[in-house]
Amino acid sequence: MSKLFILCLLISSVVFAQEPPKPYGVLPTKGQLAWHEMEMYCLIHYGVDTYTDKEWGFGDEDPALVNPVHFDAMQIVGAARAGGFKGVVVVAKHHDGLCIWPTKTTEHNISKSPWKNGKGDMVKEYQLACNKLGMRLGLYCSPWDRNNAQYGTSAYVQIYRAQLKELCTRYGPLFMSWHDGANGGDGYYGGAREVRKIDRTTYYGWDTTWGIVRQLQPAAAIFGDVGPDVRWVGNEEGHAEATCWATYTPEAPDEGRKPANGYVKSSKGTEGTRNGIYWMPAECDVPLRPGWFYHASQNEQVKTPYQLLDLYCQSVGRGASLDLGIAPNKDGVLDERDVASLRAFGDLLRQTFAVNLAKGAAFTASNVRGKDPGRFGPAFLTDGDRYSYWATDDAIHTPELVVDMGKSTVFNVIRLRENIKLGQRISAFTIEAFADGTWRKIGEGTSIGANRLIRLPQQVAASKVRLRITGSAVCIALSDFGLYREPAHLAGSEVSTRLSGVSKAEWKDISIDMGSVN
Length: 518
Ligand code: FUL
Hints:
518 residues; TIM Barrel; Jelly Rolls; 2 domains; 8-stranded parallel β-barrel; 19 strands; binds beta-L-fucopyranose
């Protein structure tokens, strides 16, 4: 080949190379991408309520109540880590107003407790434990403060902002700043013991307040009912809807006013909004026990590893995150039952996702962008990279993909991901399995986004799987296709509630060779 010919080839491949797909709709920020990648973290509630057996302290509790003689941040953060969680959000101040760090903003803080002779700083201990264990730290500072005498006036908002400044500057990088929507009502308020109502849409001046976090912790994702980065899913049961869009247009509960933190139709957060005006994915929060704080009476009600796996599938498996509440006891450690459940859940997750059974299979796509598999082909679907992807030509919105494993393969979980750097593009898909010479539908769904799991009611043995994209706003950019086998544990009666996309009745009609399941 002449040099000139090679040069022409090179030039034409540059000139005529297919462009990557254009991004679609609103897009995640860098901070939101990092938050999506975390998938799971824990929310730690500990304070006066731990000793008074309440969920919401009134604000008149003596800080001397708090004396966690065996407080061990390593044990608590270590248990979260064993559960597969990537970070912890520490409740630095709950509605009762007690700050568990030695703040300059109020006397009502941990220095008034006998713990470490008033020299302790629980937030610092969590930070150090996170650093040692490779976990990330986030903080929750309740805007509603039932202790503070100034609550309801503008002076309190300055105090709240000063608290955020301390928290954002003393404890290293934070991955999250969590802003609860529960606001106002009755409280101690420095002895006034009265009801104080605030206007949820204006009182906290959220734009300015969140601006402090943005400035001091630019990488932190800010959580609130209406984001700005991560929205509340609208329930405290730990699940999103089967359809759950990362995009969202919040709605106010009444006409004529803007939605705000604590003032939003929160039920809309469960599903989000197709083509919503913000990229504002959902966080699913739920406590490991019935309450957020520790209550000895709930020692036998710790969620089981399998319940946690269900919640994982209904949150992380729907493109949202799982924020699991854990509650140290009066000694300042997690009860051994909680530790055991977290560890077993982590083991279950690790076992389930250890092997992508589709890796090494032959992938045949009905269309590859620019006929250029080296850049946009389906081989990228199993490389474990969330942002490398299979893409189609601009005009092709409903492609098909056949995954041929070459032999009967047993699985019960299918994982799909879009390259969300290019937006949430796909709106519907079905999955079929090939066995006994026939294709049969085994699952279907709508939103994919950062992560989508289809968990089948029982294990399936099939040699080929076909993914049909049945709806997409634009050409697709799918980054992940995985087949997994969850360790067998399902009891028959539990199965029907676990099905995503297909009804149990429908499933029964599907006579795929179930092969030998284990
Ligand atoms: C709620 C609070 O009122 C609960 O006490 C708890 O902190 C939960 C995580 O958020 O809105």
